[in-house]
Amino acid sequence: MLDQPIALSSSTRSVARRPVDGVLGAIGDTPLVHLRRYPDRRDVAFFAKLEATNPGGSAKDRPAARMLDDAWARGLVGPGSTVVESSSGNMGVGLAQACRCRDLAFVCVVDSRANVANVRTMEALGADVRIVTRPDPETGDLLTARRALVAEIVAATPGAFRPDQYANPENAGAHEHGTMREIVEALDGRLDVLLVATSTTGTLRGCVDALRAHGLHDTTVVAVDAVGSALFGGERGRRMLPGFGAGMRTELSESADFDRLERVADLDCVVGCRRLALREGLLAGASGGAVAAAFDRIAPGLEPGSRCAAILHDGGTRYLETVYDDAWVARELDCPPARLAALVDGTPGSGR
Length: 352
Prior knowledge:
Layout: H1 10-14, E1 32-34, E2 45-50, H2 61-73, E3 82-86, H3 90-101, E4 105-111, H4 116-124, E5 128-132, H5 142-156, E6 160-161, H6 169-186, E7 193-197, H7 202-213, E8 220-226, E9 260-264, H8 266-280, H9 286-298, E10 307-312, H10 326-333, H11 337-345
Parallel strand pairs: 2-10, 3-4, 3-6, 4-5, 7-8, 7-10, 8-9
Antiparallel strand pairs: 1-2
Helix pairs in contact: 2-3, 2-6, 3-4, 6-7, 8-9, 8-11
């Protein structure tokens, strides 16, 4: 509640984590934060899993390391191999980090919507970044064009390995045995609603598998997809924010299981991000704003005492020139600063 003081428990203050083996050992065990001021309903608990605290800055660190570990164990990659993958940004950073730790070459194919910060981070980690600027001529989709270029590079590169995050079961496995397991354990198995933003749908698949493995069949899973995404029968359309939604159905999405679908527009992502920042002091990435916006939609129908959790896939520092830039929002989303401020505040008549 708002009138309760914020305090650290004695165990939180006194227990220090032991050293880990290399930077990849720091992946996981991310904080689960009880949001104190975001929910309009004070009789509903809302928890946020802060994946930005992974060393590469996002939830994608988990599957990046797991897919590479699996490939190494199976002999699909080894000394001298080149890893080639398509990414909107975060998976590229995770793979660049994991490849650097194994002295592997890495080629990442992104498109023109990728955050400049992500591209520069990959390059700083030694990645060869290729940027697709033209969409696939048949579908008009940038993701399809990215994947086509990956296939060309793999075919032309001896010893190349393609993790293929869109179909690789280890993508989902990283969240089944990591992200969702941590949430279940932190909440002692008491969870009524889980909100998950979608892209490859690896997080969604892994979380559902973990809930089933822990016997939490009554937890309502809300898939949060972008307006303009082709996932789950959606209609492909203009999307300005990377890493959320997809321009094509992925292999993992074909068997995704969930209870409710919420589609969130770019502007609603911005509003959700801004509310998290101003109410909680929490700077979330675009998909984090999407799950916050989806929570706002479902909150009125929740039973008193409900416990909800959302995964915030990354942080907001990579979106300072888009989501958190009033000029960009006005130009690209046709929402001037005064209207945006009213939306964030929830002023009656603001269109929200």
